[in-house]
Amino acid sequence: MKVNEKLSILLLLENSRISKKDGTVPVTARLTVDSKRAELLLGIRVDPKIWNQAGGIATGNSQAAQQVNKSIIKAKAKLQQVYDELEAEGGYVSAEMVKQVYLSGKEKSKTLIEVTDFIIERFTKKVHKEKRSAETLKK
To answer: 11, 29 in Cβ contact below 8 A?
Structure first.
């Protein structure tokens, strides 16, 4: 694992996806890890008139701006948490990995040993119910 590996989150507006109904646009997060990028929509919409691109937040004291900023803070915290958890597991963490875990809502995928233990445990229960042979379990 490289020492300079770090998560960077840049928030951008998708101006090409402007809503005809209320004029809002979706907020996109550009994740960068070790010079590799991944982009994802956060599910947050904002009026471009109140957006501060340099700060990545909505400006003003309106209720809409405060709600957008609260949602942005939560999303950034969750992305950072996902990155930290993946990094704590060891190994290489990519921007795409952070994106996939964030979008799936899953903590992490199961290891081969965890899956094997689950299968053996399930098979053991079937042996106790006499639906499977104990000899097969021993193998």
So the answer is: yes
DSSP state of 110: P
Tokens, residue 37: 């990028």
Give whole-number Cα distances, 100 to 38, 104, 134, in Å: 10, 6, 40
Beta strands in the chain (DSSP E): 7-13, 25-33, 36-46, 51-52, 57-58
Tokens 């997060």 identify what position? 29
* SS3 (DSSP) at 38: strand
Q: Tokens 């963490």 correspond to what residue?
A: 93
Please provide the distance, in angstroms rounded to a whole number, between the alpha carbons at the two ends of the chain: 39
DSSP, res 52: E
Q: What pLDDT shows up at residue 19?
A: 67
Segment 39-49, tens digit of pLDDT: 888 888 888 88
